[in-house]
Amino acid sequence: MLTRYFFHIAYNGKNYHGWQRQPNVRSVQEVIESRLAEVLRRPSITIVGCGRTDAGVHASQFFFHTDLNVSLNEDLLFVLNKRLPDDISVFDIIKLEDKIHARFDAKERIYDYFIHTSKNPFRKDVSALYDDKVLNLSEMNAAVNLLTKYEDYRAFCKQPDLHNTTICKVHTAKLFSKVNGNELRFHIASNRFLRGQIRIIAQKLLDIGTGKFSVSEFEDCLASKNRPELIKPAHPEGLFLSKVSYPSLNLPSPCSFLSLDDSWQEF
Fold it and tell me: Catalytic: which of 54, 92, 105, 125?
């Protein structure tokens, strides 16, 4: 009899060509599947992730499930973390009585996009540097405030025709700044996201901040569903999948450095 296990993980995506297994490139899924198969002494293991992340994108909280016909030893968490590279961590292995699907049963996903405007060697792999920009933050925030008013995000999707629907129920969208003003955080939560959606929006926010795109043009794209002439995603290293919630499973992320504490001020 197969038992479903949920794995609660995080990874730094710098050294990976995204989450999903692909031929001839290194992916997070491929590394985990191979290490898990070694530890469990199986020819192969197939895992199903809660979503996909692009090359270079991080996840401070991510879930995958796998169905196994063996009982897992209590030391699997320790052993698997020893076998995995340092940029992938497993926090919890959860045996489920019901077969929740890691991707299709997720009710909410939260992403954070980090920007720093002064060169910082301790931010270079986990935040996007835009050091030549003088940003109009009030205009950027005005655009962010529009995101919860619309549901169809076809205009800000890399390949909209690959999706059955481009409807996303964004219920939270906020812009934060550090007290020093040199770091920004775009925070967005929805039931689902489209391919490239957040990085495309983040780049448009930066274009608004530098006067290359206007708030009215941004809203016109949302209202008309017409894509802007230039679709360019922001740098991948600034993007984190930071929380995934399920109806019967809602765990905090152990990555406390991403928490919205008092050092972040909302506009």
Answer: 54
Pick the CATH number of 108-248 from 3.30.450.180, 3.30.70.660, 1.20.272.10, 3.30.430.20: 3.30.70.660
User: Does residue 112 have an active-site annotation?
Assistant: no
Please state the pTM of the whole predicted model.
Answer: 0.95
Asked if 29 contacts 19 with a C-beta cutoff of 8 angstroms, the reply is yes
Q: How far is CA 32 from CA 38, 46, 47, 95, 114, in A?
A: 10, 9, 8, 18, 26
- Distances from the Cα of 53 to the Cαs of 67, 178, 242, in angstroms? 22, 26, 12
Distance in angstroms (rounded) separating the CA atoms of residues 132 and 146 = 26
Per-residue pLDDT tens digits for 42-73: 999 999 999 999 999 999 999 999 999 888 88
Which of 1.10.1040.10, 1.10.260.40, 3.30.390.10, 3.30.70.580 is the CATH number of 3-96?
A: 3.30.70.580
List CB contacts of 43: < 8 A, sequence separation 6 or more.
37
Strand bridging mode 239-245 / 183-190: unpaired
Which of the four pLDDT bands, split at 50, 70 and 90, describes residue 256?
A: low
Q: Confirm if 241 and 99 have CB atoms less than 8 A apart.
A: no
- Of 158, 227, 151, 222, give the one whose Cα is nearest residue 192: 151
Whether 156 contacts 232, CB under 8 Å:
no
Joined together, the tokens standing for residue 213 give 């795109």
